[in-house]
Each structure stands twice: as C-alpha cells, then as structure tokens.
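Bug: token stream looks shifted between consecutive jobs. Job 1:
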Amino acid sequence: MAPGLSAVLRRGLMTAEATTAAASARKANDVLVLCGPSGAGKSTLIKRLLKDHPGRFGFSVSHTTRGMRSGEVDGKSYHFTSRPTMEAAIANGEFIEHAEVHGNLYGTSKAAVRDVLSHGEICILDIDVQGVESLKASKDLGFYPAYVFISPPSMQVLEKRLRDRNTETEAAIQKRLETARKEMTYRDLPGFWDLVLINDNLDCCYDKFKDFVVSHYDVQ
C-alpha cells in the first residue's frame, strides 16, 4: 500500500461512519425549519403538507408574549405567555431558539419539539432568521434540521398580501415590511439554506416544496 494511503482510507472510513451516524440521528430526530417574511405563504404551505400527509408531520407550536388576536387559539396558534414567565424559561435553558420581534418575544421550546418527535412525526418549525441563526449556532440540538426559505416574488407583492389581510394597522404593516427587507437579505446567502422557494404561484411553490420534503425525509 502506498505511503499515507492507509491514513487516507482511515479518514475516509471515519467520515463515512460519521455520515452514517448523522443520517441515523436525522432519521430519529427529523426537523424541518421554514423561514421567510410574514406574508410569504409559509403557513399555507405547512397546512397543505399536514393535510396531504396526516400523521407524518407535526407542527411545533411556538411561544410568544404578544397578545392573542381574534380567531387565535392558545396552544394551537401559539402558546401565549407573559414576558417574565418566558424570560425565566429562556434563562433556564428551556428554549432551543428565541428572538424579539416588534417588541414581543417569540421562541421554540425544547418540550414542544420533543412532543412532536415523541409521536414519530417530522417536526415542522416556522421561525424567523434570528431563530435560524440561533439553531445553526447551537452545538447540542440533538437533531439535524433542513432549512427552507420561502420568499415573496417582490416586496410590492408582499405589501399587497399584508394589506389584503386587513388585520393590522398601518404602523404594524410598516414594521412587518421593515423586518421583511432585513430577512430578504438572508435569502441568497450561499449554503445557508437547503432550499429557497419564490412563492409567485402557490400551487407551483407547494409542488416544489413537497417534492423536496418527500425526497429529503423519504416520505411515502
């Protein structure tokens, strides 16, 4: 055997073993992260995926300190809580990610993710770019997420979608647009996302999203 070849083979074997271990861990701890501006269509894509694959996916309900809106249900839309309670839980290490958005705290608790995974389901997270950065920086998640960014075709289209909701004040819409502009700067970062989709046609966007998920997680 050529000098140094055995070392190369050993490194190759170690890499293969590490890849196999990571794949096994992924199978045991499937997590799918969706990110993108409010109004990009994330919730609609998630609802369609859940409907098409009942029992295969579960949505991790986030915590927030903002007030409950009309039509929302505590424990389904969000886990609504107070700022002191959530800050204490964050300090106690109970959240895998958290961020402050428009003066309110949002976050994903470890318990919420564990609850979905315990049912053998792929856990879906809908979080902002701050949350994604937090997950990527963490060294002990215990799972290996796939990261998908959902983008509107343009800021003009996004603004129209937000206004068509007719649920928020002008000031709130402007805040969301400001946040969206910042989030869009992350869209084209090399290697940051496993998939980037531009939602200019919902059906086409969903088909591409579903194809990726089915392939990535080996969903039948």
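Job 2, same session, no restart:
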Amino acid sequence: KTFHQLFFTLDPDDKVIHTNITKALYLADGSAKRAYDDLKEKGYYTNIIAGNISQQVIVDSVSVDINEYPYRFRCYATQNIIRATSTVSRILITEGTLRNVSRSDNNPHGFLIERWATIENRDIKITNR
C-alpha cells in the first residue's frame, strides 16, 4: 500500500515528485525503477508539472498469497487524475512478489517488491470541473 501511494500520488512540484518516487524506490527492485524511467523518458512527470495536474491513488485492497515464497501480491486501487478542467478516475491493478529484507528507516515493513508490473490502468469515469 505504501509503495503505491508514494509512486502514484503526485503533485505539480518537481521536489514532491522526486521525494515520493525516491521513497517508493527503496521499497522495490529494478522493475519499479524501470517503470519510473519509462514514464520520465516519455515526459509524464514534466507534463504533470506543466499542466498543474495532481494525481491521487486510493488503495482499495491488496491480496497476498502467503502459501508460497516469495509471496505473490495483487493491488487493486483507484487513481484520480485532477486537471484544471476535469477529473479522471482510473482503475489500477498491479502485481508482483514480496521478498523478506531487513527492516530499516527506508523500508520499515521489511518487504521488497520484486517483478512489479501494472496489469490494468484504464479510465472508468471522467468528470468535468
């Protein structure tokens, strides 16, 4: 839950984006870094800042299969993208595995997200503001 809130909750401020993404990347392996690099290369974060867009994520649920290690998880969330003229609500589903690691200030839960991937991220509602 924490990773998804940090990775997907964005405001049009370069320092806020950098701080949240840095914290999120402590909780995941290179798969999350690659996703971040891809978004950055496509200008996603620049567009957030230039368009004064805010993005919020509400985690609806996380299912974890503890019967096999590393533990598989699937996260179900709603993503709200707030623009000057509209708010777009999106369904967001991601999955990956959880590996036990030492707890630290950067990773207080002691789990590292591995093989993280977005399964679904599509519009479900657009509301004019």
